[in-house]
Amino acid sequence: MEKFEQIFMHINGETEKREQANAQTYLESLLSTLESTLDNTFEWQVEGASKEDMRKAIQIAILKGMRKGSQPNHQMTPDTLGLLVGYFVEQFFEKELEEGIISVLDLAVGTGNLLYTVMNAMDNKISATGVEVDELLIRLAAATGDLIEQPVALYRQDSLEKMLVDPVDAVVCDLPVGYYPNEEVSLDYELCAKEGMSYAHHLFIEQAVNYTKDGGYLFFLIPANLFESEQAKQLHKYLKSHVWIQAVIQLPETMFSAKAHEKSILILQKQSKELKAPREVLLAKVPNMSNKQALAMFFEKVQMWKENK
Predict the structure, then answer these.
(1) Domains in the chain: how many in total?
(2) Do 220 and 268 meet the contact criterion of CB atoms below 8 Å apart?
(3) Which of 133, 182, 196, 226 has its CA 20 to 30 A from that of 300?
């Protein structure tokens, strides 16, 4: 049995006991179990377990809790997508990561799986900040961060309101998709809809740009049809004024349960007077992840683009 499976068995067993004893949801009981692990009132041992083993075990437990619940905002970025985002962060910050630490912000951190997957891939090279409005999700993110010993500052608030966060080198974010209900706040944004309600995912892009240093990069998981909506023209205009599109990476359809859920990776760079736009935008499609030869060719294409950009 893998080490992360052993950890999951310990955590899941205790969580199920608490769920029945306290008449709580599985996720609430999981949070209680993780917090008890941190304060040593619930102890278990899996010798030689890594930070990544711990993250995977907690992720499986959280996924189990989400499947048992029905709240639409309780969703998690799959590991495969987190690892792909981490790969691109590493490519765009290769020199900086060799020399020291980069600062990263996730404006929709949820339980932290995307952020922690990226952080674990570049161990001790990222100082992170996460923002999340849902109390249960951010407490799960906090407990996970403590258990895997990753340095992250977490803020519970609406990410689209003003934040006490310093500008960062990079943003990673699995964009929440849908309409933003607080029309008063949306009025402060260039991407506020001319008529009707604004798209939250558009406003998240603008807010992320606001909190990125000049020349910094933004890595978004976006709905595959982002540039086809009725508000796409306004988004194009905004992007042209504030950022350079570095890459649009189409993800394989097999990753998603339905066409409506398909996503792509959008990589932007905040414009800077000292820098130039890329010669060409990287447009690529990730092949089926089980096709090793095609996957190797995909990464080779990325490297060739990187050398010529």
Answers:
(1) 2
(2) yes
(3) 226
